[in-house]
Amino acid sequence: MEIYLDRRAVRQIRLSAQEAIEEDDTESLREDILEAFTEEQVEEIERRLDNGDFYELLTDVLDEWSGDDVDELFELLETQLGEVGIDLKTESKGDDDGGDDDEDVDDEDDEDLDDDYLDDDDEDEDEEE
Description:
Largest sheet: 2 strands, parallel
Radius of gyration: 21 Å
Number of helices: 6
């Protein structure tokens, strides 16, 4: 079975994880992860768990998490759910980093500026020759 988390849910988890890293407190992170899943998704997960307790699974994930890398948290969550036959998917993997699309555009603009700068240097060298 596949469970999809939309961008909003992924962003919510990422922000909460960042807060947990800064404050060294995972209690609210556990609650936020739980809230990111729909009631139907939680019920399906709990049907597949031996102990039937998604909250306890999240506790295990957070205990295993190093507490300093948000991507690692998602990987652990995907692994734990994968062990009970659930494939966790996030809406558009490239967008689940919590950043907005403007950051990507800025990076591209910086590359264009670098290229323009290099082109100007090449022209200057041509004029000197």
